[in-house]
Request: fold
Amino acid sequence: MRSAMLLVAVWLGWVGSAAAATPVTAMVIHGGAGTISRESLTPEREKVIRADLDRALDAGQAVLGAGGAALDAVTAAVQVLEDSPYFNAGKGAVFNADGVNELDSAVMDGHGQRAGAVAGVHRIRNPVLLARAVMEKSPHVMLVGDGAEAFATGIGMALVDPSYFRTEERWQQLQDAKKRTSAGIALPRRYYFGTVGAVALDASGHIAAATSTGGMTNKRWGRVGDAPIIGAGTWADAGCGVSATGWGEFFIRLNVAHDICARVAYRGDALNDAADAVVMQRVPELGGDGGVIAIDAKGNLAMPFNTAGMYRAWIDRDGRRGTAIYSGH
Reply:
């Protein structure tokens, strides 16, 4: 009898260990936070935006589902969003004051905390791919402007004509911004937002984050926001990953992405608590707004934003999937 009980206990222990060892994967993406009103977003436009978020999520999940790396997953997801004309990244990016698209991107692999970033590029179809190349094929973390594009050419990455990025909607947005600025009228907050990003946890327990943006409509002087700044708009370490979207100047000043992960690492804060404290308290206290997506090493997700909406989609650790724009859905 005692032997039988021992065997049962051993078997239960083995089952428990096997269950505990089951790999956990999760992923969350965003297409930007900002003034997204139900009145201005037509049902047709909402449908295509949700479809592109789903396509990006599918691209990342295909990598994770095949046992691939989190870094490959976030790269794949962001590449899809850069190719969509409905987000402020890659094709469909906003124009600067000179009528030029200036693109920024960053990737970070929490496994070893490797990072790569580019800023102010004009002819890179998928800036996220160049950011990753900076990380993997150069001794540097960030390259900017013409130097970044010279590096791209040097590694065999094709350049595109700048006209590739143009959409009529973004061009008209620039004309409106110029008129408002000349008249001394403040720009709508939607002109400050639109970054895309992804964060993933793979079956090996590694976390990665990627972010990409066209920046701010009518920006001048080579302005760079938080997206390509490691620690501000993009961060990943062994226990946490974050991609941010919002008014970049405030996210830089508060080092938002790293602050969230530091609260998790050093104080033991729950991911949701850390993200809420930074996004819902610190950022607005300073005068900024925006949102983040985040994942921790257990596959927990956080998606706080203090704006009217944030385009986002996710697959959680239990395989549950969702897409949302406004608070609640």
